[in-house]
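One record is set out below.
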Amino acid sequence: MRKLPQLSALRAFEAAARRLSFKAAADELNVTPTAISHQIRYLEETLGTKLFERGTRSVRLTSSGHQLFPPLRDGLDSFERAVDAVRRTQVGKTAILSSTVAFMARRLAPLAGSFREAHPDWTLRLDASNKTVDLDSEADLAIRYGSGNHPGMTVIPLFQDSFGPVCSPRLGISTLEDLRKATLIHFEWGAAMRNDARASVWRHWLEKAGMTGIDADAGLSFTDEIHAVQATLAGQGVGLLSLTLVAEELASGVLVQPFAMSLESFRYDLVYSARRSDQPAVTVLKEWIMGELAQPRGHDRDHRHGG
């Protein structure tokens, strides 16, 4: 028979040790800070040792607290994964893939049917979010866009993104002089990326092309990248767009890339938790993504049109 303190006290201690705050632990467990304090005091009395040094506005672990916290944290993480696995077994095989809203809409949603063809006994759930989701609890795997720095995660690089001017062939853009008369289409980068040099905007491209006399901020501006893509597809102007997101349209000729010059931008990575690498959902998603996206369609073709 195991001689363990009450699980509620162990959970209270783990949350408080992880957050180094009784209030934050209380918010997480949906109880009052007083309840957390009582649970930890009970645990200290049961173990016969202090687990926290209490300050006026903060707490810190004692040596005994440091000794108890890691195995307890890892044990609760293990419990959570086991419960999640059982829950998923009961509701069927579901694989959850997270990615940015733009990449989900432009690249993943059109491919979703191929997942069902390859894995007919699985349900694919696509979670479109520009926020970083928890890959231990909220999704099985993610395709993330950025610098490639994902601490604590297993990372498989997919491909580098680049930006270039694209437009409908109906506009007849083929020279820089044509571009002077065209409407430029812009979108706003998110706060986390907008100050990074890799966040491509028209000013960067025009400077690299050596073009002067063009207002780099004029034209049509959208707060959402998808809307900028849609306006470009509708022939409203020339968009400085991700060549990854419009690869299919460039390959089919619905859009053209009038100028060969492009700007290298951020990277797409396949990312998952190392602690869940042996989970079936991670395995089937990784296999599907590598088959569909490791070599993005359209990037190996020449999309230049004139200029």
Notes: Strands lie at 52-54, 59-61, 94-99, 123-128, 141-146, 153-166, 184-187, 220-222, 238-242, 263-273.
